[in-house]
Amino acid sequence: MLQSHRTAFTHFVNHLQLPWRKTQRENLIRWGSAFLAVQKLPVRRLARVLGPLPAQAKQADKRLRRFLGNDRLHLDAALRAYLAFLLPRLGSQPFIPVMVDWTYVGERAILTAAIPYGGRSLPLFATVHERSIERRIYSQTQAEISLLRRLRWCWPAEAPAPLLLADRGFDNMFPVAETFHDWGMYSQVLWGFRKGWVAGLRGDYVEMEDSPFTDSLDRQSRARVSADLTWYPTEFSKIRLQYNHDFLQESFFLADRDVDSVFLQFEFILGAHGAHKF
Q1: What is the strand order of the sheet 120-130 is part of?
Q2: Count of Cβ atoms closer than 10 Å to residue 60 Cβ
Q3: What whole-number percentage of the chain has pLDDT above 70?
Q4: pLDDT tens digit string along 60-107?
Q5: Is the Cβ–Cβ distance between 143 and 128 less than 8 Å?
Q6: What values do phi and psi take at 100, rounded to 5?
Q7: 176 DSSP assignment
Q8: Is the Cβ–Cβ distance between 228 and 240 less than 8 Å?
Q9: Which of 228, 227, 208, 232 is closest to 218 using CA atoms?
Protein backbone atom coordinates (compact mmCIF):
# COMPACT_ATOMS: atom_id res chain seq x y z
CA MET A 1 0.00 0.00 0.00
CA LEU A 2 2.85 2.39 0.82
CA GLN A 3 4.29 1.96 -2.67
CA SER A 4 1.01 2.90 -4.36
CA HIS A 5 0.72 6.03 -2.20
CA ARG A 6 4.35 6.89 -2.93
CA THR A 7 3.77 6.58 -6.68
CA ALA A 8 0.71 8.84 -6.56
CA PHE A 9 2.32 11.44 -4.30
CA THR A 10 5.51 11.46 -6.35
CA HIS A 11 3.40 12.19 -9.43
CA PHE A 12 1.76 15.10 -7.56
CA VAL A 13 5.07 16.57 -6.33
CA ASN A 14 6.59 16.34 -9.81
CA HIS A 15 3.65 18.28 -11.25
CA LEU A 16 4.14 21.00 -8.63
CA GLN A 17 7.63 21.74 -9.98
CA LEU A 18 8.84 22.80 -6.54
CA PRO A 19 12.01 24.93 -6.64
CA TRP A 20 13.57 22.76 -3.92
CA ARG A 21 16.66 20.59 -3.90
CA LYS A 22 16.27 16.94 -4.84
CA THR A 23 16.79 15.75 -1.24
CA GLN A 24 14.12 18.16 0.03
CA ARG A 25 11.61 16.92 -2.56
CA GLU A 26 12.47 13.32 -1.69
CA ASN A 27 11.85 13.97 2.00
CA LEU A 28 8.51 15.58 1.16
CA ILE A 29 7.55 12.49 -0.83
CA ARG A 30 8.54 10.24 2.08
CA TRP A 31 6.47 12.25 4.53
CA GLY A 32 3.44 12.59 2.22
CA SER A 33 3.31 8.94 1.17
CA ALA A 34 3.58 7.75 4.79
CA PHE A 35 0.81 10.12 5.84
CA LEU A 36 -1.46 8.93 3.04
CA ALA A 37 -0.83 5.33 4.10
CA VAL A 38 -1.77 5.71 7.79
CA GLN A 39 -3.68 9.03 7.93
CA LYS A 40 -1.79 10.01 11.10
CA LEU A 41 0.59 12.89 11.86
CA PRO A 42 2.92 11.72 14.70
CA VAL A 43 6.43 11.48 13.26
CA ARG A 44 7.23 8.21 15.04
CA ARG A 45 4.17 6.56 13.54
CA LEU A 46 5.13 7.75 10.06
CA ALA A 47 8.71 6.57 10.58
CA ARG A 48 7.52 3.06 11.44
CA VAL A 49 5.66 2.97 8.12
CA LEU A 50 8.77 4.02 6.20
CA GLY A 51 11.07 1.64 8.12
CA PRO A 52 9.49 -1.60 9.40
CA LEU A 53 12.68 -2.62 11.24
CA PRO A 54 13.69 -0.67 14.42
CA ALA A 55 16.95 0.60 12.93
CA GLN A 56 15.20 1.72 9.74
CA ALA A 57 12.41 3.41 11.71
CA LYS A 58 14.94 5.29 13.84
CA GLN A 59 16.77 6.53 10.75
CA ALA A 60 13.49 7.54 9.06
CA ASP A 61 12.36 9.34 12.25
CA LYS A 62 15.58 11.36 12.37
CA ARG A 63 15.34 12.22 8.68
CA LEU A 64 11.72 13.37 8.89
CA ARG A 65 12.38 15.54 11.95
CA ARG A 66 15.31 17.25 10.25
CA PHE A 67 13.13 17.90 7.21
CA LEU A 68 10.13 19.24 9.17
CA GLY A 69 12.37 21.41 11.36
CA ASN A 70 14.36 22.87 8.47
CA ASP A 71 13.89 26.65 8.69
CA ARG A 72 15.66 27.12 5.34
CA LEU A 73 12.89 25.54 3.29
CA HIS A 74 11.43 28.06 0.86
CA LEU A 75 7.80 27.71 1.97
CA ASP A 76 6.65 30.78 0.05
CA ALA A 77 8.08 29.31 -3.14
CA ALA A 78 6.25 26.05 -2.39
CA LEU A 79 2.97 27.92 -1.83
CA ARG A 80 3.43 29.82 -5.09
CA ALA A 81 4.03 26.55 -6.97
CA TYR A 82 1.02 24.93 -5.28
CA LEU A 83 -1.28 27.82 -6.22
CA ALA A 84 -0.02 27.80 -9.80
CA PHE A 85 -0.86 24.08 -9.93
CA LEU A 86 -4.21 24.25 -8.08
CA LEU A 87 -6.05 27.37 -9.25
CA PRO A 88 -6.28 26.54 -13.00
CA ARG A 89 -7.88 23.21 -12.03
CA LEU A 90 -10.77 24.96 -10.28
CA GLY A 91 -12.22 26.03 -13.62
CA SER A 92 -13.27 29.44 -14.84
CA GLN A 93 -14.29 31.53 -11.81
CA PRO A 94 -14.94 35.27 -11.30
CA PHE A 95 -13.15 34.94 -7.95
CA ILE A 96 -11.65 32.29 -5.66
CA PRO A 97 -13.10 32.11 -2.10
CA VAL A 98 -10.42 31.82 0.59
CA MET A 99 -11.41 31.04 4.19
CA VAL A 100 -9.24 32.47 6.99
CA ASP A 101 -10.00 30.94 10.37
CA TRP A 102 -8.54 30.16 13.80
CA THR A 103 -8.55 26.70 15.37
CA TYR A 104 -7.52 26.10 18.99
CA VAL A 105 -5.92 22.77 19.86
CA GLY A 106 -4.50 22.33 23.36
CA GLU A 107 -1.92 25.05 24.01
CA ARG A 108 -1.71 26.08 20.36
CA ALA A 109 -3.69 28.39 18.08
CA ILE A 110 -3.61 27.56 14.35
CA LEU A 111 -4.41 30.19 11.72
CA THR A 112 -5.29 28.61 8.38
CA ALA A 113 -6.12 29.77 4.88
CA ALA A 114 -8.04 27.32 2.72
CA ILE A 115 -10.18 27.21 -0.43
CA PRO A 116 -13.67 25.66 -0.03
CA TYR A 117 -14.42 23.38 -2.98
CA GLY A 118 -16.96 20.63 -3.55
CA GLY A 119 -18.00 20.45 0.08
CA ARG A 120 -14.39 20.09 1.19
CA SER A 121 -11.51 22.37 2.12
CA LEU A 122 -8.26 22.66 0.17
CA PRO A 123 -5.63 23.91 2.66
CA LEU A 124 -3.24 26.57 1.43
CA PHE A 125 -1.19 27.63 4.41
CA ALA A 126 -1.18 27.56 8.22
CA THR A 127 0.74 29.31 11.00
CA VAL A 128 0.96 28.08 14.60
CA HIS A 129 0.86 30.40 17.61
CA GLU A 130 0.62 30.22 21.39
CA ARG A 131 -2.91 29.73 22.73
CA SER A 132 -2.64 33.03 24.62
CA ILE A 133 -3.05 34.92 21.33
CA GLU A 134 -6.78 34.19 21.72
CA ARG A 135 -6.93 37.07 24.25
CA ARG A 136 -4.77 39.48 22.23
CA ILE A 137 -6.95 40.94 19.50
CA TYR A 138 -4.19 43.15 18.10
CA SER A 139 -1.76 40.21 17.87
CA GLN A 140 -4.42 38.14 16.12
CA THR A 141 -4.90 40.93 13.59
CA GLN A 142 -1.15 41.20 12.96
CA ALA A 143 -0.91 37.42 12.42
CA GLU A 144 -3.78 37.58 9.93
CA ILE A 145 -2.20 40.52 8.09
CA SER A 146 1.10 38.64 7.85
CA LEU A 147 -0.60 35.54 6.44
CA LEU A 148 -2.63 37.56 3.92
CA ARG A 149 0.46 39.45 2.76
CA ARG A 150 2.21 36.14 2.16
CA LEU A 151 -0.83 34.86 0.27
CA ARG A 152 -0.94 38.01 -1.84
CA TRP A 153 2.75 37.70 -2.71
CA CYS A 154 2.31 34.06 -3.77
CA TRP A 155 -1.01 34.48 -5.60
CA PRO A 156 -0.54 34.10 -9.41
CA ALA A 157 -1.10 37.38 -11.25
CA GLU A 158 -3.17 35.69 -13.97
CA ALA A 159 -5.50 33.91 -11.49
CA PRO A 160 -8.94 35.25 -10.42
CA ALA A 161 -8.80 37.51 -7.37
CA PRO A 162 -9.31 35.86 -3.97
CA LEU A 163 -12.49 36.58 -2.01
CA LEU A 164 -11.66 36.47 1.70
CA LEU A 165 -14.07 34.85 4.15
CA ALA A 166 -13.54 35.19 7.90
CA ASP A 167 -15.73 34.69 10.95
CA ARG A 168 -13.74 36.33 13.78
CA GLY A 169 -16.33 39.09 13.97
CA PHE A 170 -16.19 42.85 13.96
CA ASP A 171 -17.09 43.81 17.53
CA ASN A 172 -13.44 44.15 18.61
CA MET A 173 -11.78 45.35 15.43
CA PHE A 174 -8.41 47.07 15.75
CA PRO A 175 -9.08 50.84 15.69
CA VAL A 176 -7.43 53.23 13.29
CA ALA A 177 -6.18 55.33 16.25
CA GLU A 178 -6.39 55.40 20.02
CA THR A 179 -6.20 58.27 22.49
CA PHE A 180 -4.73 57.51 25.91
CA HIS A 181 -5.23 59.66 28.99
CA ASP A 182 -2.13 58.79 31.03
CA TRP A 183 -0.86 60.71 34.04
CA GLY A 184 2.01 60.52 36.48
CA MET A 185 3.78 62.24 39.36
CA TYR A 186 7.08 62.16 41.19
CA SER A 187 8.74 63.54 44.32
CA GLN A 188 12.40 63.58 45.30
CA VAL A 189 14.70 64.60 48.14
CA LEU A 190 18.32 65.66 47.46
CA TRP A 191 21.10 66.00 50.05
CA GLY A 192 24.38 67.74 49.27
CA PHE A 193 26.49 66.11 51.98
CA ARG A 194 29.82 67.59 50.76
CA LYS A 195 31.06 69.82 47.97
CA GLY A 196 30.46 68.24 44.57
CA TRP A 197 28.52 65.26 46.01
CA VAL A 198 24.71 64.88 46.11
CA ALA A 199 22.65 61.90 47.26
CA GLY A 200 19.02 61.56 46.28
CA LEU A 201 15.88 59.52 46.92
CA ARG A 202 12.97 59.66 44.50
CA GLY A 203 9.53 58.14 44.08
CA ASP A 204 7.58 57.96 40.78
CA TYR A 205 4.17 56.78 39.74
CA VAL A 206 2.63 56.62 36.25
CA GLU A 207 -0.90 55.49 35.44
CA MET A 208 -1.35 54.20 31.87
CA GLU A 209 -4.79 53.65 30.41
CA ASP A 210 -5.27 49.99 29.54
CA SER A 211 -6.18 48.85 26.03
CA PRO A 212 -7.10 45.46 24.53
CA PHE A 213 -5.52 46.54 21.22
CA THR A 214 -2.04 47.73 22.20
CA ASP A 215 0.13 44.93 23.63
CA SER A 216 3.23 47.10 24.12
CA LEU A 217 5.65 46.12 26.87
CA ASP A 218 6.04 49.82 27.71
CA ARG A 219 2.35 50.46 28.41
CA GLN A 220 2.11 49.20 31.97
CA SER A 221 1.25 51.28 35.03
CA ARG A 222 4.06 51.31 37.55
CA ALA A 223 5.49 52.76 40.74
CA ARG A 224 9.24 53.29 41.11
CA VAL A 225 11.61 53.90 44.01
CA SER A 226 15.05 55.27 43.09
CA ALA A 227 18.26 56.03 44.94
CA ASP A 228 21.10 57.94 43.27
CA LEU A 229 24.53 59.34 43.98
CA THR A 230 25.87 62.24 41.89
CA TRP A 231 29.39 63.63 41.68
CA TYR A 232 30.19 66.99 40.05
CA PRO A 233 33.90 66.84 39.13
CA THR A 234 33.59 70.27 37.44
CA GLU A 235 30.83 72.80 37.01
CA PHE A 236 30.44 71.57 33.43
CA SER A 237 29.98 67.86 34.10
CA LYS A 238 28.46 65.27 36.42
CA ILE A 239 28.52 61.52 36.91
CA ARG A 240 25.49 59.80 38.42
CA LEU A 241 24.90 56.23 39.59
CA GLN A 242 21.21 55.37 40.02
CA TYR A 243 19.31 52.27 41.18
CA ASN A 244 15.60 51.78 40.35
CA HIS A 245 13.08 49.28 41.65
CA ASP A 246 9.84 49.19 39.63
CA PHE A 247 6.52 47.71 40.75
CA LEU A 248 4.70 47.02 37.47
CA GLN A 249 0.94 46.48 37.68
CA GLU A 250 -1.08 43.91 35.77
CA SER A 251 -2.49 45.03 32.41
CA PHE A 252 -4.68 43.48 29.72
CA PHE A 253 -1.66 41.67 28.22
CA LEU A 254 1.02 41.65 30.95
CA ALA A 255 1.24 40.20 34.45
CA ASP A 256 2.36 42.21 37.46
CA ARG A 257 6.08 41.94 38.23
CA ASP A 258 9.03 43.68 39.88
CA VAL A 259 11.97 44.97 37.84
CA ASP A 260 15.38 46.19 39.03
CA SER A 261 17.70 48.39 36.98
CA VAL A 262 20.97 50.28 37.43
CA PHE A 263 22.05 53.30 35.37
CA LEU A 264 25.39 55.07 35.08
CA GLN A 265 25.04 58.57 33.62
CA PHE A 266 27.72 60.97 32.39
CA GLU A 267 26.73 64.51 31.44
CA PHE A 268 28.82 67.47 30.25
CA ILE A 269 28.02 70.96 29.01
CA LEU A 270 29.63 72.89 26.13
CA GLY A 271 29.15 76.56 25.30
CA ALA A 272 29.35 80.01 26.80
CA HIS A 273 27.59 80.85 30.09
CA GLY A 274 27.47 83.66 32.59
CA ALA A 275 30.04 83.97 35.36
CA HIS A 276 29.04 82.48 38.73
CA LYS A 277 30.52 80.71 41.70
CA PHE A 278 30.85 76.94 41.77
Answers
A1: 120-130, 108-117, 96-105, 162-166
A2: 22
A3: 90
A4: 888 888 888 888 888 888 899 999 999 998 888 888 999 988 888 888
A5: no
A6: -120, 120
A7: S
A8: yes
A9: 208
